């Protein structure tokens, strides 16, 4: 699929996409109206009894790379095209995004019957000196509830050598409580992180994930509505034995060996606490650029 052209099939119609700007200029209230009209899902789980979500909250943190394409997610029309293809698959029953992306999808009518989770803390911009200071610059719990969405997601990176980690943990704790008061899912994505040559790197080991997950599980005044969003690590079974909270496996970076990626997801899905997948760039920008095929392959694992 060339980035300069639309994708055939279930892709967003270009005339509709052109109309998004006109709507935002002349009738911004249409966004709230679309949220009110949206048909909500009956459950967080789809017909396969799993939660299969597409993630598209990367751009708001300045993380636009997908594989070898440094600005792949920087073309909104193309991103929406890919999202509409993924969400058209009946096995995909959810989406994760920031207000700008979710509101475009609302106006396109792509969120009918889907689990919608709003991304909350996007202030730790990728590659900056303040990256660990993950402030809440996107959704808050009150707006998520008012929009009729099903939950909120927060990135929770724990850097033992960066003191601003404490304020991030405190903010995430408040968000977990705020969402719980509305009866909404709090999706917490925890990592142990370190600066390596000036860049933040997540420690993807079982020991690190056990520590990160146990901290994340204890955030907030209740864990009743908390789900974890976790990466694939070696010895995944030992890592996931650290919690009884429901967990979703994230996709991570786009890899060249898609078969190996799918195999790792399949193994993780066999674990009792793993309730589904939250995949972004790996499905939206697969190595062969066939979004429909990649999504179909991921759904088949469920």
Task: Explain what the structure shows.
The protein has 302 residues and is α/β, with parallel strands linked by helices. The protein has one domain (14-300): TIM Barrel (Alpha-Beta Barrel). 36% of the residues lie in helices and 18% in strands. The chain has helices spanning 14-26, 29-37, 76-87, 99-107, 141-146, 165-181, 206-217, 236-240, 258-269, 281-284, 291-300, and strands spanning 51-56, 94-97, 115-119, 151-158, 185-196, 199-202, 226-230, 247-250, 274-279. Strands 1-2-3-4-5-7-8-9 form an 8-stranded parallel β-barrel, surrounded by 5 helices. Helix 2 (29-37) crosses helix 4 (99-107). 43% of the residues are buried.
Level-1 CATH class name: Alpha Beta
The CATH homologous superfamily is called Aldolase class I
Please give the CATH architecture: Alpha-Beta Barrel
Principal-axis shape: globular
Q: Oligomeric state of the chains? A: single chain
Roughly how much helix do the residues carry, as a percent range? 25-40%
**Which range does the strand content fall in?**
15-25%
Annotation, overall tally of beta strands: 9
Class of secondary structure makeup: alpha/beta
Largest sheet: 8 strands, parallel, barrel
CATH domain fold name: TIM Barrel
Number of helices: 11
Short description:
By secondary structure, this protein is α/β, with parallel strands linked by helices. It has 11 helices and 9 strands.
